[in-house]
Amino acid sequence: MTPDRVTRSDQPNGDGPGTVRFAMQCPLCQAADTRVIDSRPVDSNSAIRRRRLCVACDHRFTTYERSNPVTMVRKRSGRLEAFQPDKLRTGLSSALAGRPVVEGSIDLLVERIESEVVTLGPVVSSDVIGRLVLDQLRQLDEVAYLRFASVYKSFNAGSDFERELAELENQTESLDPTP
Ligand SMILES: [Zn+2]
User: Fold this and answer.
1) How far apart are CA 168 and CA 104, in angstroms?
2) What is the domain range of residue 77?
3) Inside any domain, residue 9
4) How far is the CA of 21 from the centre of ligand 1 (A)?
5) Chain segment 12-26, per-residue pLDDT in tens
6) Whether residue 101 sits in one domain with residue 47
7) CA 64/CA 55 separation, integer angstroms
8) CA within 20 to 30 Å of 162's CA: 31, 82, 127, 169, which one?
9) Could you give the number of structural domains in the chain?
């Protein structure tokens, strides 16, 4: 029994307890089990290039990991601040507190919203981000959506949002499946 005979799958994503695992799937056969066979910094250390091997079909492919450029958020006051996914996570967590959502949903939401915000950058208004959050929450959980909307609304007095919210509340009542 030598330790190097122990097979363990490569965990390049830094998986640990309580984290959601996102496998990089094979672009050829879509198998989820791929391994990193080489990893090196490129572009003056601004990116990491990884060679990956699909365990199912032996296809080799390359992925690049880069940090996102800093996106700035324009607040209603006109002030600019760096977009902070952690702040977004906090907002989503409190909106979803106690709601029956699948573990990892918040991470996934943060990732989705962040990737959208980044494509809209380099400067995005806080209103636009609020809308993105609302769109995502609406699909996931109506209660969390309403909670977030009420916070969002308080920062957006005078918008057409109030009317929209009232409409949604009516719809929610008629769609409520609970007896
Ligand atoms: Zn494959």
Assistant:
1) 27
2) 72-175
3) no
4) 19
5) 444 444 444 456 899
6) no
7) 19
8) 82
9) 2
